[in-house]
Write a structure and sequence with these properties.
The chain is an alpha+beta fold and 101 residues long. The protein is built from 5 helices and 4 strands, in the order E-H-H-E-E-H-H-E-H.
Length: 101
């Protein structure tokens, strides 16, 4: 497994506009090859949003990173201060805490 965490601040849209846009994007992200899950993040008080993506492996992550959906997120003019960090996982303790079945 491989994990990607993206964070950003909204710029030019508010929480409700962002939430509404996200509601229409679930199926797009669900169709990403190798994506196990995406958790959508929202902290309106600090204007911090993003996602936690879990991929089957690093190859699936790399394919996503090279694709148009990632480019659209990273280049969205309504997202400021975008950060994207990927991580390998520690399988033993992750399995013990039910992060891997």
């Amino acid at each position: 497994m491989h994990v990607l965490i993206i964070n950003f601040n909204l710029d030019g849209i508010d929480h409700d506009q962002f939430s509404e846009a996200c509601d229409g994007l679930g199926e797009t992200f669900a169709g990403i090859p190798g994506l196990i899950a995406k958790v959508w993040l929202s902290d309106p008080e600090s204007n911090t949003y993003g996602g936690v993506y879990t991929f089957e492996d690093k190859a699936a992550f790399e394919a996503y990173k090279a694709g148009e959906i990632f480019a659209a997120v990273a280049g969205n003019p309504n997202f400021a201060n975008v950060t994207a960090r990927d991580f390998a996982i520690l399988e033993g303790p992750t399995r013990a805490t039910r992060g891997i079945s």
